Amino acid sequence: MSEYVAELGQELLRSITRVETLINETGDVVLIRDTYNNILDINLKNVDELFGYNVEELLKKPGSIRYADVEEYEHIEQMIKKNMHITHYKTQIISKDNKLVDVHLSLLPLKDSQGKNIGRVEIYKDISLISTLERELKESYEKLNTAYVTLKELDHIKSEFIDIIAHELRTPLTAIIGYNDLLELNRDKNLTDNQKQYLQVIRRHAHELNKLVTDMLDVSSIETKQISLAIEPIEISEIVYDVLNKLEPLATERQLNITYEISDDLPIIRIDKHKISQTFFNLISNAIKYNIDNGKITITIEYRESKLYVEITDTGIGIPSYQLPEIFNPFYMGDASLTRETGKTGIGLYVAKGNVEIHGGSIGVESVEGLGSVFHFTLPVNKKL
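The structure corresponding to this sequence follows.
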């Protein structure tokens, strides 16, 4: 019997040793108090770092652990009196050198075999680093949010400015185009060859500027989400042929070979003819501008899965991979030298994207620099707009 008791005693000692080892190895400060608030035991690790006191000082003065908030301390005292089990209660303590330390406090009541309260275990976890990171993260978020609000305001101002400028330009442009048309009606009677040529130059540039004004107004409409659609049933091939007819002189000048592969079984689609024409015009004119001389452009349209699939492939200069994520952003210019050569404004692709998406479709691009690009978009056939 005595051997059995001795064995149990040894096992108990081993268990106590294991528990003490675990407590001492943890990064938290663990202390045990009796019902009179005396500290009976405390693990040795991190005590100085957390409280600023050494173990002997805490054992002699158990009231050395102070809380920053008096009301919060009284609340904690009430929870202690009620023998409540508390886990990760966030609070602040005051160290010996009067520094505030953020901690998670856990309280575990201790009871004897009869269930009588005999004390408690207090566990203090230093969360100063976490709290610092949380504060820094909050400050960064507030700065980011302030910057976002500022950018939104600037974006709104920019949209208003574009809208005002575009409307102000439209009136004189309409007059210039109108008077130019009147002069051209009588050019065979009263104008010299040089004057006729000047009229053609005026007409071409006025129409280019008029298209830019239209695109600027469309940008404003897209950004303010005030797009109105004039929906009608259309054969998509009709739009393609009309756009190609308008762009034929530019393609001929570059000696480009334009082919199209349009399925015979394409259904009638309900769309805004002007906006989808504008999309084709912007994409095909880009394929012409950024192509090589004697290059090729292929337009493919298929119908599958209740959608029209459009691809415009060119053998042009291609787009650098780092530019692809930005290519549909408003006013994105890309290569500055190409911008000057082609008169690029950074509006066309953004407008094309807005026109497609307002119809419930999607648009994208694949490109290899030096080999060419493939712009593609879809249009749902049966979607109600």
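The mean pLDDT is 82.
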